[in-house]
């Protein structure tokens, strides 16, 4: 029912616009298309770098904005490429500075991405797939399964769309891949996008400030450890014993906590950096002091941070938010056991900033 561990192969991204004949290639696809085009135009290869700088650093919204490129080059680019393949279907702003975009993709699918403001931080939360195949029972993103992988260009476009919301004096500082989808099931397209995000000639966001959140797919975690252990990994646990975890995170059935923790440990060895474990607190389901005790024992002496996320209610689902009291008791047990724990503050709740929620609302409307 769920895709194999590493996911990638079984689920293709939509054909890039280039392959669809009538549509124009996306300049953000990292597929070598631009390099080949420049060569055909008799343009030096370094123009690709100049164009990239315009897109990422100088925030050009059109090719016409790229004023130091020769006029005929700008006209050619405008004819043969497009910068934006999405349109903004909805833009919501919360009082706390959180902004959320619902983006319509070229094939009519919709995804969400969010800009969070916290002190100096300008964190963006981006999606990796349309829908999700993991089936977590409390999450709005996967209620209708997965529709397709996002392309590298679509992942990058979210970053540029969100960057456009900032004044010129501010930069994006952190990326969390915690929007819609399971990022480790789309590594083939995600990794090239994150490479551009961290490139000094791209967005220049250091790897340490890029967090990839996963349901815990061991083979894909191992691949990330082998190829790129610099990213901060967050593993979504939500339960510390298999029966409950399989109920909440159905993909756990064929994996199991022993394998998830072993893969997390291997990633930690490869990266040398503290891991984060996420735990959504569902009232009356996984929020008892016993659950907290089990979680503390599961983590043992690992150098880990536990990110406790009070359930954000999803219309149509019967799960409850944890009471203040049970939340406090849960945190106390963990702290007394010496576990590093933080509660993820809820931002943008009023604009349905939790993953998948806005897209669902739109579809129900
Ligand atoms: N597929 C990735 C990214 C999911 S979104 C993963 O599983 O980690 C990031 C986090 O938000 C995950 O821990 C996810 O379980 C959690 N989440 C999903 N729906 C939620 C909800 N309604 N309330 C609180 N957290 C939620």
Fold and architecture overview:
By secondary structure, the chain is of the alpha/beta class. A hairpin with a 2-residue loop joins strand 3 and strand 4. Helix 6 runs parallel beside helix 8 and helix 9 runs parallel beside helix 10. The N terminus is likely disordered. The structure holds S-adenosyl-L-homocysteine (SAH). S-adenosyl-L-homocysteine (SAH) binds next to strand 8 and strand 10.
- Give me the side-by-side strand order of the main sheet: 1-2-3-4-7-8-9-10-11-12
Class computed from helices, strands and strand pairing: alpha/beta
Shape: elongated
Bin the strand percentage: 15-25%
Poorly predicted regions: 1-10, 15-22
| H-E string | HHHEEEEEEHEHEHEHHEHEHEH
Bound compounds, each kind once, are: S-adenosyl-L-homocysteine
Distance between the termini: 29 Å
The residue fraction in helices comes out at 25-40%
Largest sheet: 10 strands, mixed
| Rg from alpha-carbon coordinates | 21 Å
Q: On the 0-100 scale, what is the average pLDDT?
A: 91
Count the beta strands: 12
Number of helices: 11
């Amino acid at each position: 029912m769920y895709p194999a561990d590493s996911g990638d192969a079984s689920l293709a991204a939509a054909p890039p616009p280039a392959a669809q004949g009538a549509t124009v290639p996306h300049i953000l696809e990292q597929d070598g298309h631009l390099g080949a085009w420049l060569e055909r135009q008799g343009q030096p290869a370094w123009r690709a770098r100049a164009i990239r700088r315009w897109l990422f650093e100088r925030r050009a919204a059109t090719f016409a904005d790229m004023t130091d490129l020769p006029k005929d080059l700008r006209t050619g680019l405008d004819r043969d490429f497009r910068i934006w393949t999405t349109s903004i279907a909805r833009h919501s702003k919360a009082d706390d500075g959180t902004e959320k975009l619902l983006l319509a993709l070229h094939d009519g699918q919709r995804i969400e991405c969010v800009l969070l403001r916290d002190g100096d931080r300008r964190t963006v939360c981006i999606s990796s797939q349309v829908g999700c195949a993991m089936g977590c029972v409390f999450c709005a993103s996967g209620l209708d399964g997965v529709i397709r992988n996002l392309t590298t260009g679509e992942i990058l476009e979210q970053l540029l769309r969100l960057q456009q919301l900032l004044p010129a004096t501010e930069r994006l500082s952190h990326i969390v891949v915690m929007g819609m989808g399971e990022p480790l099931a789309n590594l083939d397209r995600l990794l090239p996008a994150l490479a551009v995000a961290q490139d000094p000639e791209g967005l220049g966001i250091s790897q340490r400030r890029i967090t990839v959140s996963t349901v815990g797919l061991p083979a894909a975690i191992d691949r990330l450890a082998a190829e790129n252990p610099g990213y901060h990994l967050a593993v979504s646990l939500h339960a510390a014993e298999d029966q409950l975890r399989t109920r909440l995170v159905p993909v756990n059935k064929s994996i199991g906590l022993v394998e998830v923790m072993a893969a997390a440990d291997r990633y930690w060895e490869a990266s040398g950096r503290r891991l984060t474990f996420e735990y959504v607190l569902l009232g009356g389901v996984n929020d008892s002091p016993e659950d907290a005790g089990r979680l503390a024992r599961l983590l043992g002496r690992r150098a880990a941070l536990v990110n406790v996320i009070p359930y954000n209610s999803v219309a149509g689902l019967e799960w409850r938010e944890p009471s203040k009291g049970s939340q406090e008791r849960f945190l106390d047990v963990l702290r007394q056991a010496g576990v590093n724990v933080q509660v993820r503050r809820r931002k943008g709740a009023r604009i349905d900033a939790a993953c998948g929620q806005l897209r669902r609302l739109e579809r129900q409307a």
